[in-house]
Amino acid sequence: MAHDDARVRELAASYTAAWCSHDPARVAAHFVPGGTIAINGGEPVEANEVARSFIEAFPDIEVLLDDVVLNDQTVEYHWTFTGTNTGPGGTGNAVRISGLEEWTLDDDGLVVESRGSYDQDEYDRQLAHGAPDT
Asked: How far is residue 77's CA from residue 66's CA, in Å, rounded to a whole number?
């Protein structure tokens, strides 16, 4: 399915703003009902739950839109997120990690499923020791 470039870029910008709003429902609104995110090959989880868990762990989460790549069947949403792990049981350390989500969209332009990936080892290192100075 060919994607409408402007429409997909608008979706990506809106999705980024939704994460920065700290409102899991706004993030989930970019997905079909029951739409899922699977992280680093893990089991798919409903988007609202994934957003809630990250926002809870990183109450100051900020997401930056790095790039959008349109492929024949999917869209790659490249991002960087920053935040301080001050949620329940948090380490208090800052994290800055980049990754991507590979989206499958429905005909209405909503995300059916997202397959996300980032460097898990680096994320774990930053949780334990903090993000490197930039």
From this structure: 8
pLDDT band at 133 (very low <50, low <70, confident <90, very high): confident
Residue 75's DSSP bridge partners are 70, 103
* Strand duo 75-84 + 62-70: pairing: antiparallel
Backbone angles phi, psi at 86, to 5 degrees: -110, 10
Is residue 134 domain-resident? no
User: What's the rounded Cα separation, in Å, for the pair 42 and 36?
Assistant: 11
In the chain, the amino acid numbered 50 is: V
Tell me if 54 is assigned to some domain: yes
Largest CA distance in the chain: 44
State the average pLDDT for the chain.
Answer: 96
The percentage of the chain sitting over the pLDDT mark of 70, rounded to a whole number, equals 98
Rounded-to-integer distance, Cα 3 and Cα 52, Å: 29
Tokens of 54: 């990250």
CATH of the domain at 112: 3.10.450.50
Say how far apart CA 102 and CA 7 lie, in whole Å. Answer: 16
The answer to whether 95 touches 119, Cβ cutoff 8 Å, is no
Give the model's pLDDT for residue 134.
55
